[in-house]
Amino acid sequence: MFKKVLVANRGEIALRIIRACKELGIRTVAIHSEADANGLHVRAADERVCVGPAEDSLSYRNIPNVLSAAEITGAEAVHPGYGFLSENAHFAEVCESIGLKFIGPTSENIALMGDKAKARDIIARRGLPVLPGSPGELRSEQEALDAARKIGFPVIIKASAGGGGRGMRVVNKDDELVRAFQAAQAEAKSTFGNEGVYLERYFIEPRHIEAQILADERGRVVFLGERDCSIQRRYQKLVEESPSPAVDERLRREIARVATEAVRSVHYRNAGTVEFLLDKDQKFYFMEVNARIQVEHPVTEMVTGIDLIKEQIRIAAGLPLGFKQQDIKLNGHSFECRINAEDPDKFTPCPGQITRYHPPGGLGVRVDSAMETQATVVPYYDSMIAKLITHGQDRDEAMARMRRALDEFVIEGIKTTIPLHKRIFNDAEFQKGRVSTGFLERFLANSAG
Amino acid sequence: MSKPKTRMRSKKLVPRQGTWPDPAGRRGEPDAARNGLSGDQQKAIQSLIDLLKGNNLCELEVERGGWRIRLRRDVSGQQVLQAVRETTPPVSESPAELVAAQPVAETGGMVTVRSPIVGTFYRSPSPDADPYVEEGDQVKKGQVLCIVEAMKLMNEIESEVDGRIVKILAESTKPVEYGQPLFLIDPTQAA
Known about the structure:
The structure holds two protein chains of two kinds. Chain A is α+β, with helices and mostly antiparallel strands. Chain A is 35% helix and 25% strand. Chain A has 15 helices and 20 strands. In chain A, helix 4 runs antiparallel to helix 5, helix 7 crosses helix 8 and helix 12 (395-408) runs antiparallel to helix 13. In chain B, a hairpin with a 2-residue loop joins strand 1 (59-64) and strand 2 (67-72). The relative contact order of chain B is 0.15. In chain B, the strands form three sheets. Chain B has a five-stranded antiparallel β-sheet, with no helix packed on it. Chain B is mainly beta. The interface between A and B is medium-sized, with 23 and 14 residues.
């Protein structure tokens, strides 16, 4: 087991990783930018190293400084969290070459999964259900047009190197395709530096279902249930739950089979999430693999009882998984609300000082956050400041707990999206579990009226 | 160590005590008995601090008669005010001349050389060689002051100013982080 781990991240996920390390008896090194010098994650760690100014490309994503911090502190492993360097194949590769263990998948896994068109292609060749789409990147307008006609409209054009909902275009008709293709290429080039695009069938009102898997270094793969992340605004998730109200036991077994076979086929290691779209007819299609631990991992932890971060660390340390697939049981139901420092109506970021912070408590309530009274939310990073997670014996109890916990949660001095979450959890359609990825946009449009 | 001439006064620094009032009012009004300023002087300084903050300046230098004050504000989040004052006579009532200076890492006229990377600090090019500089040495802009080694790469840190090494702030062979102070240089006035 490692003696010292460097946490290459900040905020709530850095704190989460530090907590897991402490429980495993591992010493921790926190890195921070100058803006985060007083952050809770820094004070929670055993050692600290300032790696740069506020701007993340010069600090948290500054590979030489991060590696140097590991060197001067003698860290044996680095956990990248999510975002920042977590899916940077080059960083993972450099770690491998200098003998610093990267707690996550291999650099090849990351590189492959980062090329979304290629990943889809490999999965399709295994005979697994893949979103109907172009077989790889589209190299010409004619190729794009042929592919779209074959797949059937409406289609969506996506950037190969893209993510986070950026660089996507929906095309409804034949005669709009060429122009949309050209625009998508230009946008992909300017946003991601790579103009490669591919296209997929566009589903109206699908559900976003994702499967959590763990794979140890012996190649043993375990499926830990699915999460439903359909509550999204502009492709950013706001609320997640596990299990999905749209997935029955038979469908779950199918999803498990496809997800585990997909990751086995690419020799995937450590934690990963296989994303699917579920259409109205209960047919699901592989979309992509997120080669990292995800923001919403807590809902899986609540229903399975497995500490995913500890498992990541154990796997990286070469230990076999301590459980088999038949040991995994999904108990009860869990929700997560992502609380952002944003105006709950306009979604504009609201950094500033938190004058009073009091998180909710009680049975079945968990808060993952690095915030506290007098903490300052700085404007340089993601606006998510807390994750409120609840668990109940069934979906109704988990929802009632979330409503109760949202009422108790005090964050004063800045605006947060707590009021929006309260409205979502009081919505009848949401309560019935009848939501799809179009739900939130419609919900917001109706509320604005 | 030879005593500097005109710069000696500016060595009377208060930054480490942090007794200047914080514009956000968290530390409250300064105690006159502690810092030796009259009520009028404190009010004058407070209005300068407000000016600094209100106009989002990083640095302000004011000269009134025989009295000079420089205020520096760290705009990367934490407001740290450092001020230096020349010797008395007390402030006159004439309007102040305000000079908005560059956001340079200065401490009462001194220049602090900070590490631009994370690594290990070495005062000499190799274990048996002489150190690049000693306290009291005159250095020129561009002159190598030290090495910060990171991942087996030796990075030479150069001086940004002409001046004299007043103090060496880091210990050779020890790790340093980004922004860690390495040298205090007393910059020479331009000829």
